Amino acid sequence: MNCYCEIPVKCTAGKDGNLSYVCAISKCRFFALCPLHADGWRRVVAPPAVAGEFIVVRFEAVLHPEKKTPHVAATVSPPEVEAVVAVLEDAQFQPMWYVAKKAYLYPMESYSHLLVALRKLLVRVHIEEIPSFFFRCLEAVQEIQLQHERNIDGNASQPADA
Fold first, then answer.
1. Which UniProt keyword terms apply here (predicted)?
2. What phi-psi label fits residue 133: left (phi over 0), alpha (psi between -120 and 50 degrees) or beta?
3. Cys-Cys with 30: which of 23, 59, 113, 130 at CB 3.0–4.6 Å?
C-alpha cells in the first residue's frame, strides 16, 4: 500500500504493541491501522471458515465502480444445498447478478431481510456477516453527502469542481 506521496508505507509497532502504517519519509500525514487496498477490487478478507457439517454463506460489501452505489455480494460454500440456494435466488431480494449457485449480488437494502430468511432455514447455516462498523461508516458518509447537498441548495457551500 502507498501513502499520499505514492511511496510504500512503513509498518511500525506502537508502545502498546499495535501495528500502524505511516509515510516512510514523513512527508505527508498518512496514518492507517490496517492495510488499505483502494485500487481495483482487491481487498483483505479473512480466510473462509471450514465447512464441515454446515453451510457457510459469506457476505461482503461491494461498491459499484461507476455508479458508486453500495451492494452486497454473497458466496456459498458448498453450493449444492438447495434450501440455501432457493433463498439466495428468491426474487424478493432482487438478485441483480450472480454466477449460478456460487456468487450473488444484491442491493444493500435487501441485506437485513436476506439475513432473516437465512436464519429461518432448518439447515444449519454459518453466516459471515458484514461488520457493523461498515454500516456506521456508510451512514456517516451518506449524512455528510446529504448535508453538503443541503448546503449547496442554501448557497452555504460551493459544488465540486468539474
1. ATP-binding, Helicase, Hydrolase, Nucleotide-binding
2. alpha
3. 23
* 8 A C-beta contact, residue 95 and residue 106: yes
- The full set of domain ranges for the chain reads 1-35, 55-134
User: What's the CA gap between 27 and 21, in Å, rounded?
Assistant: 14
Q: Are 30 and 45 in contact (CB under 8 A)?
A: no
Over residues 113-155, the pLDDT tens digits come to 999 999 998 888 888 888 888 888 888 888 888 888 888 888 7
Distance CA 38, CA 63 (A): 11
What's the rounded Cα separation, in Å, for the pair 25 and 29? 10
pTM score, whole prediction: 0.58
